[in-house]
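Exercise 7. Given the components listed, write out the predicted structure of the assembled complex. Treat all entries as one system.
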Amino acid sequence: DTGVSQDPRHKITKRGQNVTFRCDPISEHNRLYWYRQTLGQGPEFLTYFQNEAQLEKSRLLSDRFSAERPKGSFSTLEIQRTEQGDSAMYLCASSLGRRANSPLHFGNGTRLTVT
Amino acid sequence: LAKTTQPISMDSYEGQEVNITCSHNNIATNDYITWYQQFPSQGPRFIIQGYKTKVTNEVASLFIPADRKSSTLSLPRVSLSDTAVYYCLVPTSGTYKYIFGTGTRLKVLA
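Answer.
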């Protein structure tokens, strides 16, 4: 169990640029989650997958955000035309879906700064 | 909206026992309650999970009354390194989606 891995740890980009983050979940974990967290707030749900299927996407998420999990393993989160309001920590988590109420295991996030 | 309600902050001194209570009035019959700890610039870390009565592990205890509408995380003899934000979490009914609240910011003082 090597834990959930996220890459990069930090990303600085200029407004209007596209960015992509990667998440490698714990092997055999079939559920994968993306959250966004700003200073002083709890993680905000963005989307989650069961295997390669995206089961739900937050209605608060604009069309500039897209996530994929092509083979049910790693996942990518892309933000197009970044805005300063996108600056946040983006967290990925995974869980073992075969067990009900399986706890989430989080990575240490990607911190995005949009200048 | 978050399904859980917790105090926003608590202060304690080293060596004391800390109890953080969470309200989850609409918890579904089959749902477990899970607690996480988060340090700055890190992802939340699983602490403990329970369904009813009492669960204990090497770092904490979790007390859940019979009606399951609340739960209490108990941290015995806290140290400065326990300063963190603590979240309780229950799944959104009928899904595997988890909505975080603002958590409880625990500050342990020397």
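Discussion: The beta strands of chain B are 9-13, 18-23, 33-38, 45-50, 53-56, 61-64, 70-75, 84-89, 104-109. Chain B touches chain A at residues 2, 30-32, 34, 36, 41-46, 49, 51, 85, 87, 89, 91, 95-103 (CB under 8 Å).
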